């Protein structure tokens, strides 16, 4: 090696002085790209979650400033929830939603299996079957409330045609929730169907052939070979269905507005009713309901994040 | 006069979204705009049902100058929150001649918070032709009512159409049954939380109601319909009467019923108490955050003036009753009857309506209970317990 | 006769025919390898034997039964796939036992057979692992184990080693050879790897474009190919081909500036265009000549010397010694004329 | 393929399948078909109780004409467009950036931020309702399209980030490394290398978000009122109170409101489904 | 001295150290190949030289500049990736010119350089195609072209041919050799393919577990490995190893029932456990002996004969002739004792 000054002249490309940004480019760039997203998301999503917790500690009618108009009541809103029958009804209805909404998964699988063929025009059939998912829940709600109309609704016309009594699906407190869930299952099943159709596409054909050589047929093939491979699709269908069930609001609002006499309320609707609806002036109470809903959802979010985290970890190794 | 030099913009949000009121409101705004060359009137008409929940947002940020709302307790949250402007001085100054009689409905905490612009009677609208066919008379007592109803039910019809999906129609029934059974004062005690829902008098009201329910007086599945959706039952003759406000009349006419086919009678007497009536008043208010207060006040004066009142409540506009004592009631069978009923026959007092007299939370829980009662009368005990619990919390 | 017999087997996908009337006999216990360029129909033929593709026409016999229209599971065959096609959600043991379980065999019997197979394949300690936790070679062994367990008449392999790296491939190749010796079942094996074909096969079937080009033992195909295609396909590095013309003295080859004195039984007339083929192993580089050295690759034990002829043709010579020819130097090649093969330039058929 | 391809089954099975398909479709879409039939009837059919018989006259054009010319429907539709399109652009732009940052760079807190976006995306709306409404009101954005747009952008950024990050993750990282070796500045890598490769993801997300936002109802009623700013989903309720019990018009209105996302789906089907599954499954 | 120098280079990922103090000098213009088993750190080392991985400690010099903490783009290196890493949305020409364009070179200059590179790589007619429309070999050429265009001091290749099929690999290997001859830049090349390493390298670096085992020319490593690992790694088929004990007469090898009379300068004491290594090419099968033939693979030109010793050890013998040893027959092996290598059984170091 000769002296140290020579190379600087010989290879100018490496010795250029660089600015601070240039030197820290790799470390700084991601943050620059993240800032707008994080900012927006924090302001509108993350911070409001905590604000909701905060509001739930107040008795406040939503008019004026919470610090002035609101009254700090601590956990009292939550205490009141415990004895609130409507809350209890909502909770039970949410449970019904959770459980019955899951029917969308087997139903979607069934339709997907039915449609997983390559006959002429099947693409059109598939997209038409998917239709309900694209339509707004508001329209689905309207469509189904007309479908359910007592006496003149199509469903009742059909029932009567087969000699059954007409049923007031949305007017009977014992039936209404199920009727709304059925309406909700319509688009949700379509969603699950799409997930399964793509899942079925991704099933390794050689494994099916191996299974055929192994003598697995029909439902055995489905159970032992296909379903396990559809696990990712099932997982996603599960996640989106749970979330859909807990978020159910539009349908209830459109179809029964919580009625008859509050029997179709779920937490998300009850919360809205308490906080923002015509007679609802209890922001604190509503927020407390939202917090409970959030905590329930947190179980599922946690589960989802955990499995994502597991996948991430595996992907790295 | 001094108003002609109004300038700037006057922002009005109105909930008169049904076709006829909408046209009336639009005309009103246009006229006012024309009267004041330097003033621009911006009118936004919002859905009437939606407005009930949206008003608070509208008042919070960038509030308009003038808005629609309802009288009585329904104003309470906004008055408490300081969102309505106190216009007591207008009443005191005599800026609002002819409104003395209705001032009460606008009064909370000893001050006035807005002006009424229309009100309407409630009562029983019925199919005159079917009554004639069955040989029935307008009843005056509850016994007659029940007897009539029996005839109607026997003829294969329901006596009353009602659409209780949005609950408040059931509130109308309760108002009347309770006012007739126990009198106006007791009804108000209940509304203000002084009387208990466990009171035997309340049970008596419900017992009367139950008589009707048990005989099949109401149409089936009413909990599924909105009030408009129940109208076809009357139109088609499947139900003969409808306890409803006068606003239903244009709808009935539009559906093809002539004035020969529909008529109106006052809710019949049950107990020997002075007859109270529901006559809900719709109102205009100035938002406390209004930018153009001068124009807003002028507008309030304008709508409540005798001529304008006559005009906008006319049969081809709102088709309701004017609030100004100096204006004239339109030459309309129902308005005339209603006006007469309210001015002559409402000796008990005039109530606003269930959801306006009761505080919001009580009203909401209450009407839900009423609807449930109409479907499952056997649940009464449970319902009353619930309402009582709510009462204890709401009025604490 | 047991084994597998194909009679005029044809496969069409819609209008396109991909197998053109194949006749083939595979004896019981024979190890038969299908080779051929990509797309020639090796997999299709194998899958037709397995019953995974329908046979458009013709007859397939396995162990003397006509199975042309049988269900795959009824044919007494087991197949090992290129991608292994292991069920990812089952353990190794479950994977191997799955076929028996589906066919209602009692658990004890399944366990015994899985044990036996895992012993043969040295998979004992992995029986409870999922395929994901295995290396490529282990997975391949499991796939073979799954086949063994079912005790089939015929094993079918579709490029079973092509997803393994070079070292492992050699190892597994040896294992498959052992396996065949040990259980003695008929095996049909698809590969495009020459070495696999040469080392494993009792019988090689060379396919091209849905036709059989030649059938025979590896050395037979190596020593006595029927045509240029087979000659070029079998042997590595590939046979060198140079064009030449028949003369009285033999084949005149311009590229080498020499006339090769071949002896042919069925000698074509003088002036016929022919192709002369010489294997790199049969050539030697000699000093002085009209070929220029382009590159020499030294692999330790052996060297490949790439030569450019003035005619633009290219030759590869395999040299045992590490003799270093410098790039660009002019050399010639010498070879034994009896080791040359002559092919018709047009039909590409061997002239013997 | 599972189940066994029908063309490999006996002829009878094929025929059964071919006939079953349209029947199943018909039953599946029955409620929708009913509504479509409603929308072509005259009012008199309903007043006379003729809900399901043959229409007494075919009034499709009258009914849809009414929707378009005698109601606020066109305004609501226009609002929906003005809300949806900027949201799609905004959310996709933001998430391209966040996805790039999270998908390409390794830094402390990467996974944490990513999970924050995912978790936020699954949160029930209700917990945001009160604070977001207050925020919007106090920013003077209540009952403005901008208020809705800003919120939607923020909220959708959660989902879009999940989607974009996973997509970018799946890009070969050698592409980025190759560019780095060539001395390409980081933001230029984003612009010239990554962004062009994200085109399919951007298309998929755009269609998906379009439908999500178009169909949003909850936030529309929480953050807006009246035909100035409300999108069509919320508008349909006031449309329905304008034409209450007039099923022919309500049906026509609903169909009109549902049409854009349906069209979108049909035109961009491939992307739409890619969006649903890639975003979720990957 | 130009070229690339590594001084005590260390790489840790968190707690795990994957490169353990590597010292290496690569001369200017040299073709240096890194080989070693999977996971030994070849790619990591290469990426550290490229600047794509940070260097935990130690110094990297390129062309006499300390670039240890430089940006990749400042190091004067160009890299060719295993997956080519071509930008799919750019044409071949744009791909090659992208780096220059981003660094603000004038368009004319870029065009000229791209032209030149495409001439060298015979890519002229593809300049306007997208990578998708190219074959694997062409893509690889584009990737190389992208490197050439930047006129780097050092070319880095990470298994550039491993995604190509066997035939193409041979072809591209030859092309890379040509390229190196033509442009004469320093090249560092990672591969796990023995043949590539042997044929391309001026200098092979054998890595194991993040350590350098030996550095040298291909034939040097083949002929004179420093330890058992290198001896076994270089050469195909791999060297045979049998255990033995030092005695006066040489190494006593039980597996072969013979004592091999090796001559060692640095002879260990009698009784020392050693490993004897003999390459398959250096052995011959002879009749009679205690080894049994397990399998013979005949590849036409050459055969591999697998022998089992009674001790359980396994030998491979490469035979030129197609002599058929039947399975199970007992044979012996003969070899030249001077071709044997002796390794310490414990340290695995060569004993010379
Ligand atoms: N489902 C199909 N429809 C139409 N043509 C097909 C189908 N499957 C295969 N082919 C065609 O049949 C021919 C033979 O294919 P096959 O897979 O048997 O080739 P192969 O010899 O196995 O090739 P490889 O070595 O690449 O695996 C090919 O030309 C292929 O294009
Ligand atoms: N990001 C990382 N984090 C932790 N360990 C890593 C990381 N990248 C590589 N390693 C480890 O470093 C070691 C060397 O990896 P490297 O990729 O250099 O091996 P290689 O010799 O190139 O192998 P191959 O031939 O399979 O490409 C491996 O043990 C690997 O597990
Ligand atoms: Mg194949
Ligand atoms: Mg590597």
UniProtKB/TrEMBL annotation, chain A:
It comes from the Bacteria. It is a multi-pass membrane protein. It holds the Pfam family BPD_transp_1. The keyword Transmembrane applies. Its main location: membrane. InterPro entries: ABC_transporter_permease, MetI-like, MetI-like_sf. SUPFAM superfamilies: MetI-like (SSF161098). Keywords: Cell membrane, Membrane, Transmembrane, Transmembrane helix, Transport. The keyword Transport applies. The chain crosses the membrane at residues 26-50, 97-116, 128-149, 175-200, 221-246, 285-306. Residues 94-306 form the ABC transmembrane type-1 domain. GO terms for biological process: transmembrane transport. One of its GO terms (cellular component) is plasma membrane. It is found in: Cell membrane. Belongs to the binding-protein-dependent transport system permease family. PANTHER family: ABC TRANSPORTER PERMEASE PROTEIN, INNER MEMBRANE ABC TRANSPORTER PERMEASE PROTEIN YCJO. This is L-arabinose transport system permease protein AraP. It comes from Pontivivens insulae. The gene is araP_3.
UniProtKB/TrEMBL annotation, chains C, E:
GO terms for molecular function: ABC-type maltose transporter activity; ATP binding; ATP hydrolysis activity. Coiled coil: none annotated. GO terms for cellular component: ATP-binding cassette (ABC) transporter complex, substrate-binding subunit-containing; maltose transport complex. It comes from the Bacteria. The keyword Transport applies. Belongs to the ABC transporter superfamily. This is sn-glycerol-3-phosphate import ATP-binding protein UgpC. The lineage of its organism: Bacteria, Pseudomonadati, Pseudomonadota, Alphaproteobacteria, Rhodobacterales. The gene is ugpC_4.
TrEMBL record, chain D:
Pfam families: BPD_transp_1. GO terms for biological process: transmembrane transport. The keyword Cell inner membrane applies. It is found in: Cell inner membrane; Cell membrane. One of its GO terms (cellular component) is plasma membrane. It is a multi-pass membrane protein. Its main location: membrane. The chain crosses the membrane at residues 20-40, 76-104, 111-129, 149-168, 189-214, 247-268. Residues 77-268 form the ABC transmembrane type-1 domain. SUPFAM superfamilies: MetI-like (SSF161098). InterPro entries: MetI-like, MetI-like_sf. Keywords: Cell inner membrane, Cell membrane, Membrane, Transmembrane, Transmembrane helix, Transport. Belongs to the binding-protein-dependent transport system permease family. The complex is composed of two ATP-binding proteins (UgpC), two transmembrane proteins (UgpA and UgpE) and a solute-binding protein (UgpB). PANTHER family: ABC TRANSPORTER PERMEASE PROTEIN MG189-RELATED-RELATED (PTHR43744), SN-GLYCEROL-3-PHOSPHATE TRANSPORT SYSTEM PERMEASE PROTEIN UGPE (PTHR43744:SF8). Part of the ABC transporter complex UgpBAEC involved in sn-glycerol-3-phosphate (G3P) import. Probably responsible for the translocation of the substrate across the membrane. This is sn-glycerol-3-phosphate transport system permease protein UgpE.
